[in-house]
Amino acid sequence: xxxxxxxxxxxxxxxxxxxxxxxxxxxxxxxxxxxxxxxxxxxxxxxxxxxxxxxxxxxxxxxxxxxxxxxxxxxxxxxxxxxxxxxxxxxxxxxxxxxxxxxxxxxxxxxxxxxxxxxxxxxxxxxxxxxxxxxxxxxxxxxxxxxxxxxxxxxxxxxxxxxxxxxxxxxxxxxxxxxxxxxxxxxxxxxxxxxxxxxxxxxxxxxxxxxxxxxxxxxxxxxxxxxxxxxxxxxxxxxxxxxxxxxxxxxxxxxxxxxx
Length: 260
Fold this sequence. Notes:
Order of helices and strands: EEHHHEEHHHHHHH
CATH superfamily of the largest domain: GntR ligand-binding domain-like
Helix content: 55-70%
Largest sheet: 2 strands, antiparallel
Number of strands: 4
């Protein structure tokens, strides 16, 4: 069973590593995804937006109930997310949101800084007018929610980096950047200081300016400083548990609306 997503509705997320092309879907463009991919995307968003906490159990039956799908589809989606590093599959225990340690988080940030340096080197001085407009609009949306909507700020902050990767047109780079950004989101979900995502909005704008100016050295320096600052904003926070059905309800409703 396929679900068609149109730009006018809920266009394919920039967080989707299977998304093709150099940027978000063009106006009017539709992306068709399978039911498994839809559940995978919903779960990914719930994790990236910190609705599902690190270490949270992911029962196949509860996920199937939430999305109105079978346990088989839920299992397939969880398996794909395990490949991305967002889910941990434990023999005889089931699936859990990955629960990385701070040391593992530091290692991931080291790799991320190297990958995103490559991204900035690829884009500096090569952005087209339409791509510049997309980046400016994204930063403007980040500024609009800064300090007002923590969940949206977190989502947009992660999407900024994934958008840059997609603009390179290098699908291998997109895949690896998507994985490390997702894993970093898990680290911040566990240890991130409240409203820490707000601190990076101005830094995103400076990075875009350097890319437009074609100053690769400056762009790389800004990106490296930015990611080091993001990593340094870690502060252990206890997170209250919520029933997985309640967490996934809005994502399931979104997918049902797409299939209508």
